[in-house]
Amino acid sequence: MCGTEKIFINNNEIKLEAELFLSSAENLHKATLICHPHPQFLGI
Amino acid sequence: MYNNVVSGIFNNFIQNNISCLRFNFRGVGNSTGNHSNGTGELNDTKACVDFLVNEQNIEKLLIYGYSYGAAIGCSTVNYSKNIIGYCAISFPWDFMGLEYKKLSQCEKPKLFIQGNRDRLAIYENFKTHYDFYLDPKRYKIINEADHFYLGFEQEVAKETYEFYRSIIE
User: Fold this and answer.
1) B4-167: which CATH architecture?
2) Do the Cβ atoms of B43 and A11 come within 8 Å?
3) Pairwise CB contact (< 8 Å): A30 & B19
């Protein structure tokens, strides 16, 4: 997806794979955080 | 990093110019570490909240989670005053235990999305779980959808976007 950035977020010794989109100034300081499912839970 | 439900929500937020971050829990995809039965995953979510608040200067944050991500993500709702509510899609209460139901209790706005053919987040038990939660809250039943929402991604994305608009804008 254009405009997104693939990043890693550090959580102590863990590196979390993430994708970030930052909007223009109109929506600055507001955001959503989306938690992926766990594939084992979905049985896939 | 792909899931049809999450990608539908994520892409819809982008199209509407809303900042968003999605992530894989530890041990999933290219995230390092191993699954830790929820304890570490709660910390993973908090680390993402800290990243948005401290490094991206986000002041108002809505949490969205699907399936296992709903149970874990929504259970961090009381972690920060910057989290102003959550949307849980197919919260798997019956598989996750009472701990996550209690952790996700709050007086912040909540939206629960549920398919009426879901056998993992069991539809027949949905209303009992929903009634546990304090107001403000609301729910949306997606007719004919099971846990995977194939073919219903746009409907889910539309609901999640409208929830965002009703809370933040």
Assistant:
1) 3-Layer(aba) Sandwich (3.40)
2) yes
3) yes
